[in-house]
Amino acid sequence: MNSRYNFVVHSYGCKVNTYDTGLLQKRLERAGFQQRVDKPAVHIFNTCAVTAEATRGAIKDARRVRAREPLATIVMTGCSAQVDGAQLDHLPGVDLVVANSHKGELESLLDRYFRGELRERVFRSNIFRKEDLEAGGGVEAGHTRTFLKIQDGCNSFCSYCVIPYARGKSRSIPIRELVGRIRELHAQGIGEVVLTGVHIGDYEDSEMAQERPRDLSALVEAVLEQTAIERVRLSSLEPVELNERLLALFANERLCRHFHMSIQAANTRVLQAMKRQYSAEDVEWALTAIAERVPGSFVGMDVIAGFPGETDEEFEDTYGRLERLPWTRIHVFPYSERPGTKAAALMADAMVPKHVRAARAARLRELSSERFARAALTQVGQVKAALILNTPAHGAQALTRDYWPVQIEGAESMVLRPGHEILVRVTGYDHSNESRMDGGLVGRPLES
Ligand code: SF4
């Protein structure tokens, strides 16, 4: 085995990029490359461009590797390689830049590079022409639950977001292939699959047109009917992507009562400036519908604080509305300018001062911590199905179907098998459990 063919992939950003990294590792191994963490010959940076800071972070890491290993081969790929060419293409010490448009052929480009057959070192083309979408990923050794990419790209073009320019238009993996993949994963001992993508609400299987749209609900229905996997979880959804058909599927307890709602704000004028496809009333409908139709659900949300032009009154409107609505936790993001987005270009003179963004974010985080703690205490005494994530030696943590992290009490005297689901009685709430934002539950397995 030629040592210059051993590699490591440095992975950044979202679950979709983690999935892409897993797939890339698999494809490189199939092509004769070998994974090696200590002093590999090839360092591949699978970058994230969601913020300017994310790109800067990967560049810093690549520079550090170059300084430490002058003979290593350095490859920049991923979203920054697609949208931040100005920063990457002339970066000293980078051997190849392979944008998302060409990520599917990275192993053959690397092979040709080592054969001295490449004249170019930057591979990038119009991402909106990208049609292909690789299936077959999803398992990293030792994982008990896995993120399965069902869709890539996005057709929305929200004003603050660069992702459509990095990943192209929405493309979906056919239901038939995903059902087959989930059966394989289940046969490999995976107990939970998280259906993920850049914008899963855009999911559409165009393989076989039918009278009913083959959208996300159709996929979830097929997974529940045609596979035996114990737990199915959905990643982010927008308020308008919830509908009666999807909500009705949660009657099946294998579909985890956990919603991650990408709302970003709860004031209609701000949502319009963000180019989001819904109003504050839609946010109200969605959160209320979840509470009524799928009671006991864990509802997490993403909210941006201090979007350009957001006035004090508009922020108070968002804050007040969220205070009244049912949810469990908020992930708060103070607005950060992302070069290459409409918001950064067109709203430069409407920027909310950084200290005001921070103050608004702090208020939302405080509201969220109080709400999370109150919700956690109502779990005490309940019996829940919890998936063992790791052994006592590694913390004895588990995750319930409704997304509560549980620390298993008395684990040191038990045999806990990662990937197995057990019933636990919740005995307490430990907000000092640093391993999770806002802490987690404590529970004792029921005698089997
Ligand atoms: S829906 Fe909006 S925020 Fe989400 S990936 Fe698409 S453009 Fe970005």
Brief write-up:
Helices cover 33% and strands 22% of the residues. The protein is of the alpha/beta class and 448 residues long. Iron/sulfur cluster is lined by residues 154, 156-158, 161, 163-164, 198-199.
**Low-pLDDT regions:** none
- The CATH class designation of the largest domain is Alpha Beta
Q: Within the CATH hierarchy, at the fold level, what is the topology of the largest domain?
A: pyruvate-formate lyase- activating enzyme
Structural class: alpha/beta
Bound small molecules, by name, code or SMILES, are: iron/sulfur cluster
- How far is the N terminus from the C terminus? 50 Å
Q: Do you know the CATH architecture of the largest domain?
A: Alpha-Beta Horseshoe
Query: What is the CATH superfamily of the largest domain?
Result: tm_1862 like domain
Oligomer designation = single chain
Strand content: 15-25%
> How many distinct domains?
3
Query: Widest sheet: strand order?
Result: 2-1-3-4-5-6
Helix content: 25-40%
User: How would you state the average pLDDT, rounded?
Assistant: 92
User: Per the principal axes of the C-alpha atoms, what is the gross shape?
Assistant: globular
| DSSP E strands, number | 18
The largest sheet is: 6 strands, parallel
Descriptive account of the structure:
It is a single chain. With 448 residues, the protein is of the alpha/beta class. It has 3 domains: 3-125, Rossmann fold (3-Layer(aba) Sandwich), CATH 3.40.50.2300; 145-370, tm_1862 like domain (pyruvate-formate lyase- activating enzyme, Alpha-Beta Horseshoe); 383-445, OB fold (Dihydrolipoamide Acetyltransferase, E2P). It has 14 helices and 18 strands. The protein has helices at 15-30, 52-68, 79-83, 85-88, 106-114, 163-167, 175-187, 216-226, 244-249, 268-273, 280-293, 312-324, 342-346, 354-377; strands at 6-11, 34-35, 42-47, 73-78, 96-99, 122-123, 145-152, 171-172, 192-197, 231-234, 258-264, 298-305, 329-334, 383-388, 397-400, 405-408, 421-430, 440-445. Strands 2-1-3-4-5-6 form a 6-stranded parallel sheet, sandwiched between helices. Strands 14-15-16-18-17 form a 5-stranded mixed barrel. Helix 7 runs parallel beside helix 8. The longest helix is centred in the last third of the chain and has 24 residues, at 354-377. The N and C termini lie far apart (50 Å). 42% of the residues are buried. The model has no long low-confidence stretch (mean pLDDT 92). The structure holds iron/sulfur cluster (SF4).
